[in-house]
């Protein structure tokens, strides 16, 4: 070839950029391998594409990306059989960094949080230069496919580079990193394989790492989600689920599809068959993995809303740059459209699976409380999520839906009634249900923490208002049926006396017709939180939060009859009023205001 070594200056601005890459990104050094492997895979893809029209450029049968660590020579070599580069392309791609916007990169690097810094490398087109985080000299030898000529590019990352003639038997590129003394970890084959599995496990071309003279596979080499469903076995689906979810169970549902048209992406998602060891109630972010052209980018793209965070898997698109910052992930319209499409697809799958009641019950037992969060926080999907909810009921065995409840509503019944507490077994025995049972009106029993919040946010279902039986007055007079009630006592005098005695603890005392066997019951004011929400607020040290409760009396109960008859002359009415209130609290699963005093009063009453 006879051509002499050529030396070229990067320029002052480029020197500053190299200094930023090497030092500002020091804590994320492993990212260099992702960048170089991604470049190698892209080069192979370009050659494969070019070979469609020029068969002379076809890839060798054993095409792969080789990673060869050499501890003695302190070098790490990355070799690919891709399209390669000419002398001009080496100078253009590796010698003219300034075209990528050095000033913009420097500013973004300075402003970005630590976790976003690695993404900025590729975003500004300087991914190759991350090699200088671990190497004090980088040599690139490349031969363009379809040519006989090879060239070598070399630099120590200090402001200049050289170009020189070279030899390479086949088309492709070799990158040799002369490792820094403190980068020895990247000469360990196991460390290299771990990085590849993390960042590039499913790049289509095989990636190998040399160990003891043998090339050992470092990636699966097959993007399972990009295959047709007919080409994937159940065993392969299950194996990939256990890999991506770090789980040991069998998935409850597998969703595999490809979206084409205005946006294109492939997705392979799983609904787990059991709760993870780490409760999903605590972690609020979706961990579905985002890939771009098979390359893993992040599992923090929030591809699904928090109320679907139990879903595991991969979404792979070509409509995003290979490296995309977190800021861009939040703002790009492409990802917003993908998020919406993926969410709708998961909702559609849940609707389909819900038709099999027995199978859906297994899902609901695992993830029902998480799904309910969607009713509370997602206005766009609220109605669709509400249709997927399941509940225990005062009227039927097993689980029931809101739609099934509406289909069973009694003539004259105007609302969907719910009772919220801590345990469905206790709720089923609550005196709050007596009047509803007498009228044959069904009540849904809710015992998840989120149940204190979402019913008010949903408001209605199929145009039927949702009402807590403990909130405000409940009028069941329009509902047909029920046994004929006995004559009610006149409590006109009793009500104000009890209210005066309990004025520190209740807002009102009133008669009610929703009790049958019990003498008293508590209710919440018409406006404000129901009783369960008030209990939760008190436990959190925030007081009642919605006003004092209402004490309701059953004027047909023998105890209330007797108190009404003697109200004007009963000198112990004040103490009896306190007992009535504590009795109502105990019935509701709460504790007496003074448990020891309540016990003494009950003991005294029993001794009479």
TrEMBL record:
Region (C) location: 536-608
InterPro entries tied to this protein: HATPase_C_sf, HSP90_C, Hsp90_fam, Hsp90_N, Ribosomal_Su5_D2-typ_SF
Main location class: cytoplasm
Residue segments, region A: 1-326
Subcellular location: Cytoplasm
Keyword entries, A-Z: ATP-binding, Chaperone, Cytoplasm, Nucleotide-binding, Stress response
Pfam families per UniProt: HATPase_c_3 (PF13589), HSP90 (PF00183)
Subunit structure: Homodimer.
Record function comment: Molecular chaperone. Has ATPase activity.
Similarity field: Belongs to the heat shock protein 90 family.
Record protein name field: Chaperone protein HtpG
Natural source organism: Roseococcus pinisoli
Organism taxonomic ancestry: Bacteria, Pseudomonadati, Pseudomonadota, Alphaproteobacteria, Acetobacterales
Gene: htpG
């Amino acid at each position: 070839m006879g051509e002499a070594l050529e030396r070229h200056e990067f320029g002052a601005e480029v020197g500053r950029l190299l200094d930023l890459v090497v030092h500002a990104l020091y804590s994320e050094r492993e990212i260099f391998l992702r960048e170089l492997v991604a470049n190698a895979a892209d080069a192979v893809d370009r050659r494969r594409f070019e070979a469609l029209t020029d068969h002379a450029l076809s890839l060798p049968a054993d095409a792969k990306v080789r990673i060869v660590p050499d501890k003695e020579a302190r070098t790490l070599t990355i070799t690919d059989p891709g399209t390669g580069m000419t002398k001009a392309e080496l100078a253009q791609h590796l010698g003219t960094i300034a075209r990528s916007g050095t000033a913009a990169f420097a500013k973004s690097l300075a402003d970005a949080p630590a976790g976003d810094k690695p993404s900025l490398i590729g975003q500004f087109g300087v991914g190759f230069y991350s090699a200088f985080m671990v190497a004090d000299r980088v040599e690139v030898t490349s031969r363009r496919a379809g040519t006989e000529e090879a060239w070598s590019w070399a630099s120590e990352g200090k402001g200049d580079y050289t170009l020189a003639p070279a030899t390479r038997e086949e088309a492709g590129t070799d990158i040799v990193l002369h490792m820094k003394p403190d980068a020895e970890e990247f000469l360990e084959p196991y460390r290299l394989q771990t990085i590849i599995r993390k960042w590039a496990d499913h790049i289509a071309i095989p990636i190998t790492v040399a160990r003891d003279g043998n090339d050992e596979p470092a990636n699966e080499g097959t993007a399972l989600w990009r295959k047709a469903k007919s080409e994937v076995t159940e065993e392969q689906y299950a194996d990939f689920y256990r890999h991506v979810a770090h789980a040991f169970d069998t998935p409850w549902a597998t969703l595999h599809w490809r979206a084409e048209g205005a946006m294109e992406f492939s997705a392979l998602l799983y609904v787990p068959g059991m709760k993870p060891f780490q409760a999903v109630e605590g972690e609020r972010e979706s961990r579905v993995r985002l890939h771009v052209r098979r390359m893993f980018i992040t599992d923090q793209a929030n591809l699904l809303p928090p109320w679907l965070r139990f879903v595991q898997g991969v979404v792979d698109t070509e409509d995003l740059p290979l490296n995309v910052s977190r800021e861009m992930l939040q703002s790009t319209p492409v990802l917003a459209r993908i998020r919406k499409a993926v969410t709708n697809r998961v909702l559609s799958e849940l609707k389909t699976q819900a038709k099999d009641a027995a199978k859906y019950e297994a899902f609901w037992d695992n993830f029902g409380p998480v799904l309910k969060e969607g009713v509370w926080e997602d206005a766009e999907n609220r109605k669709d999520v509400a249709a997927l909810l399941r509940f225990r009921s005062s009227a039927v065995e097993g689980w029931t839906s809101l739609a099934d409840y509406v289909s069973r509503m009694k003539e004259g019944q105007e609302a969907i009634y719910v009772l919220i507490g801590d345990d469905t077994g206790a709720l089923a025995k609550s005196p709050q249900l007596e009047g509803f049972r007498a009228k044959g009106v069904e009540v849904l029993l809710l015992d998840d923490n989120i149940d204190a919040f979402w019913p008010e946010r949903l408001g209605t279902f199929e145009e039927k208002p949702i009402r807590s039986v403990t909130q405000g007055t409940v009028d069941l007079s329009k509902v047909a049926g029920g046994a004929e009630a006995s004559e009610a006592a006149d409590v006109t005098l009793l009500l104000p006396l009890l209210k005066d005695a309990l004025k520190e603890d209740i807002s009102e005392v009133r008669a009610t017709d929703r009790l049958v066997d019990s003498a008293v019951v508590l209710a919440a004011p018409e406006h404000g939180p129901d009783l369960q929400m008030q209990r939760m607020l008190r436990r959190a040290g925030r007081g009642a939060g919605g006003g004092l409760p209402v004490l309701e009396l059953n004027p047909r109960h023998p105890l209330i009859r007797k108190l009404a008859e003697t109200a004007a002359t009963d000198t112990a009415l004040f103490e009896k009023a306190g007992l009535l209130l504590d009795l109502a609290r105990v019935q509701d699963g709460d504790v007496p205001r003074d448990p020891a005093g309540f016990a003494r009063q009950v003991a005294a009453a029993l001794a009479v």
